[in-house]
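Subject: design request, 254 residues
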């Protein structure tokens, strides 16, 4: 049977290169499947499309490594410790990733969205959500990525203006940081305190230094979701940036 070869583009390579391994996988389709499906057009990534589309086969070998397993999720592991690719941990990783991508595929089908009508900003954010799945091991984070993926397709305004920043946030934020953002957004200011007896102003959330909450607040600051409001003699207060409500609109279940 004749087959048509595709080489996966940089989307997948970029994710793999972040942890030290770059590889190309060949995808081939049976005769008759020469035109890309709507899912393939949307993702812009034959590798991810093959994983999401029924009937597509992903086969090796890749151009790096020897004896590469047929599953492309193992490519990254091969660049670190070859034995990990065949471990029980790798099998769990593969299953979680497949389940997450399959859930996204089902969401696209259920929503019956005309993918030719979504904006480039929606495309950017949704693609980043899909790509982030490959680098995620936390099931809670995978759940957030699925919500963000779905919301990016149904809400044009959620992605408008800052798609690159939103894509970076969904990739880099932990599930704990997303939960804390959701919990603390009701406060007008946030601060990290050293003295647990500090008199916190009204409508301000204080996290005691050294606590998990303070660690995650520091993460929100580094991610650009909190900015300095008014430094004082003993504590610095932070307010939410314009990115915070945009991200919340993306990751909140509707």
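Subject: RE: design request

Done. Sequence follows.
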């Amino acid at each position: 049977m004749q087959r048509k070869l595709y080489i996966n583009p940089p989307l997948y390579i970029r994710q793999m290169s972040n942890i030290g391994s770059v590889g190309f996988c060949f995808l081939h389709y049976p005769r008759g499947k020469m035109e890309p499906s709507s899912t393939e057009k949307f993702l812009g990534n034959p590798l991810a499309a093959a994983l999401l589309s029924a009937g597509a086969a992903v086969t090796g070998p890749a151009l790096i490594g020897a004896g590469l397993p047929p599953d492309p999720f193992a490519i990254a592991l091969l660049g670190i410790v070859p034995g990990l690719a065949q471990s029980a941990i790798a099998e769990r990783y593969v299953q979680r990733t497949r389940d997450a991508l399959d859930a996204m595929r089902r969401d696209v089908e259920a929503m019956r969205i005309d993918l030719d009508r979504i904006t480039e900003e929606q495309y950017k954010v949704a693609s980043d959500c899909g790509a982030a799945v490959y680098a995620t091991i936390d099931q809670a984070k995978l759940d957030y990525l699925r919500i963000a993926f779905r919301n990016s397709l149904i809400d044009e305004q959620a992605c408008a203006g800052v798609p690159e920043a939103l894509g970076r946030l969904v990739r880099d934020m932990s599930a704990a940081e997303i939960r804390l953002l959701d919990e603390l957004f009701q406060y007008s200011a946030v601060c990290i305190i050293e003295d647990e007896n500090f008199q916190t102003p009204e409508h301000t959330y204080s996290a005691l230094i050294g606590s998990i909450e303070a660690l995650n607040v520091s993460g929100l600051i580094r991610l650009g979701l909190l900015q300095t409001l008014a430094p004082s003699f003993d504590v610095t207060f932070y307010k939410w940036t314009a990115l915070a409500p945009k991200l919340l609109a993306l990751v909140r279940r509707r």
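Confidence is low (pLDDT under 50) at residues 1-34, 37-72.
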